[in-house]
Amino acid sequence: MNKPVSEEKRIPHNLPARIQPFVDREKELQQISQALLDPHIPIVTVTGMGGMGGIGKTALALEVTYRLLEQGWFPGGICWLDCRAGDSTLEAFLRTIQVTFGLAPTLIAQKE
């Protein structure tokens, strides 16, 4: 499952600081990692978690993300969108992609 990344190649990301120490969630870490790395899922993977506040959802998500980053997965980059900030619109997501990766994503509306 490890994909080493050479020292000179850095994966772009906008992750907040890692929450330390992180302990006792190995089963959940493995389940989420497997879901993100499932070869049957499309290239762009969006994964979410739910539950009451204060149980460590953000810490768990960050730990999974940092571990995969360190292993060299998702070399195109990792985009972290904090929906708690109140601006979880598609425009906010596209702005985050633009800032993080230096890209200019375009929103294409489909006619029904």
Q: What can you tell me about this protein's structure?
A:
It is built from three helices and no strands. With 112 residues, the protein is mostly helical. The termini are far apart.
Question: What labels would you give this structure?
Answer:
112 residues, mainly alpha, 3 helices, 0% strand
What is the fold's blueprint, element by element?
Layout: H1 26-36, H2 57-70, H3 90-101
TL;DR of this structure?
The protein has 112 residues and is mostly helical.
Distance separating the two termini: 41 Å
Helix/strand/pairing category: mainly alpha
Overall average residue pLDDT: 77
Residue fraction in strands:
under 5%
**What low-confidence regions span 5 or more consecutive residues with pLDDT below 50?**
4-8
Individual helix count? 3
Q: Which percent bin holds the helix content? A: 25-40%
Strand tally is 0
Which sheet architecture does the biggest sheet show?
Answer: none
Name the helix and strand elements from N-terminus to C-terminus, one letter apiece: HHH
Choose one word for the global shape. globular
Round the Cα radius of gyration to an integer and report it.
15 Å
